[in-house]
Sequence to fold (231 residues):
Amino acid sequence: MSAPSKELLTSPVRAKSLVDAVTERLEAAIVSGELAPGSRLSEQRLAVSFGVSRGPLREAIRRLEGRQLLRRTTNIGVHVTELSRDDLAELMIVREALEGMACRLAAQAITDAQLAELEALLAQHGEARDVQAGTGYYQRTPDFDFHFRIVSASGNARLIQMLCNDMYDLLRIYRYRSSTLGGRARDAYDEHHAILDALKRRDPAMAEAAMRSHIQRSREHMLQRLDGAPG
Fold:
């Protein structure tokens, strides 16, 4: 969907479940890069910006620590999680293998209804202004995430746990940043269609190869950008 607003840290939170609302706002600021990897959080500044007391903010911070988006260091404070280049490269290699297997399994297990939903989801992604312009490809929530849907369709509980819980949130930061650079958004969208075509054919080998190729290209693009090379 469309890239998040640049006002995530500067407008008061409206009541919902207050902790949920603060968590969502803080998470969006982290994923979009408004709170950059490695940056230190100021509870006082955030509480004022969000228009909330420190209680809900601290609970939101604890939740995001549990999801590895934030890290607390004794006597230093809380920082947005930052991966080194090597950490990111290793994580993406693991992701390629695991999501490739998940896509292979999904080609065998996915239902006609799930395929129809996946096709409708991609059509919705294609209508987003950022995707059409090639400037970004932001899948705001798991329900709108193409990869999340495929992993869930694999039917393998352990893969779902590893990819949709243990790794998902941390990778979202870097997936978003990668999609906004060097025209990657449009390429990623086209690659999603190739994956969908393989799933519709119910061809496990083709589906795995398409997913692996997609993630490999994403990894190469991401590392090129981190290295400062044109991509």
